[in-house]
Prior knowledge:
Elements: H1 2-14, E1 20-29, E2 41-42, E3 44-58, E4 62-67, E5 74-77, H2 90-102, E6 109-116, H3 126-141, H4 150-167, H5 175-182, E7 187-192, E8 198-202, E9 210-216, H6 227-242, H7 255-260, H8 265-289, H9 293-309, H10 316-327, E10 332-336, E11 343-349, H11 353-367, E12 373-377, E13 384-385
Parallel strand pairs: 4-6
Antiparallel strand pairs: 1-3, 1-13, 2-7, 3-6, 4-5, 7-8, 9-11, 9-12, 10-11
Helix pairs in contact: 2-3, 2-4, 3-4, 3-5, 4-5, 6-8, 8-9, 10-11
The protein binds adenosine-5'-diphosphate (ADP) and magnesium ion.
The site of adenosine-5'-diphosphate has 18 residues, from strand 6 and helix 3.
Amino acid sequence: MSTESASAVFRDTFAAEPEGVWSAPGRVNLIGEHTDYNGGLCLPIGLPQRTFAAVRRRDDGMLRMVSAQGGDVVEVALDDVGPGRPEGWAAYVAGVPWALRRAGHEVSGLDVAVDGRVPLGAGLSSSAALECAVAAAASDLFGLGLLADAAGRTALAAACVDAENTVAQAPTGGMDQSAAMLAEPGHALLLDCRDHHTEQVPFDLAEAGLALLVVDTRAEHALVDGQYAERRDSCEQAARELGVPTLREVAVGDLDDALGRLSSDLLRRRTRHVVTEIDRVVHAREALRHDDFERLGALFLESHASMRDDFEISVDELDTVVETAVAAGALGARMTGGGFGGSAIALVRADAVDATTERVEAAFADKGFRAPQAFAVTASGAAARDH
Ligand code: ADP
Ligand code: MG
């Protein structure tokens, strides 16, 4: 158990017992990519893979942090945390009490030992899992009571977004932290990023004899830095040209008209992805309500084509997963997460998980790609105290 492992790392490092262990899940987005910062819709599930944080309060305002995945102990005074400080992985931890304090909560120093079981940098949001595990601990240890209801959890998620955007200086949109804070077992989380409304949508594939296969491509691509910011800037520019606050305000029925008013082909393609992708989330929710998994699979494929051709965030490895899974009989497949590597998902028959995995591994070997990591997942629960 990683609860034990985080506690053991804590004891070894700080020569004391943690006051408790908290964990939060990674997430995989079923559909609705690059829609969060456009005020749109997305539909993530919590993963069974979680990040664990063993934590103890300190009364001297210091933060000491260690990770089973992170190397040396990092030490910083809470007063010295800020934009870009500390650097590296510890920003995702230290940023959380910093953001909570900025939001008006009374917090102090912490010793934190982390053990993460969400693959790092695989597009499965190990960063939000880490932040949200620490935020859950802070809420309990400082008596903030924010884990008790959806409103409190939403406030914790917002602090985690602030930590990631401001301290770790990664411009993420908010889906990851909401999923880690609000996901329920057996459900996908419909997230409306315009008004922060959420809805639990039943997502039980086992009942239908199906499974969701996640394939971490382990692809490493150069020149990825800046691509996310570039897509975000393009979307903001398109919204400005259309005179709307975000692309969410463009109804799918008005898309052709909107495209005609944009200044470049690039902005037209970026906009077409966002507007049609938001519409696909609406249809995916309907499909889930009716257990129409054929339709869900078809939407996965449309989404992937849109990301590949219009938003231009796919890579050969991701396309290979999708094509191979479909050739092996998957109902649908798509890349998921920010793009340029990371993971893809495939909706497959439960009895085809192994065969599909083997086909994908063989296709990767043929093309000389690094071996991928594939695993079936079920929708799992949000940040919580474990011990
Ligand atoms: P993703 O969130 O998709 O996994 P990110 O680049 O957003 O990818 O976040 C990965 C980063 O988060 C890592 O490079 C590291 O800095 C930090 N991180 C996540 N989990 C851990 C962990 N268990 N220990 C140390 N750092 C972690
Ligand atoms: Mg991340």
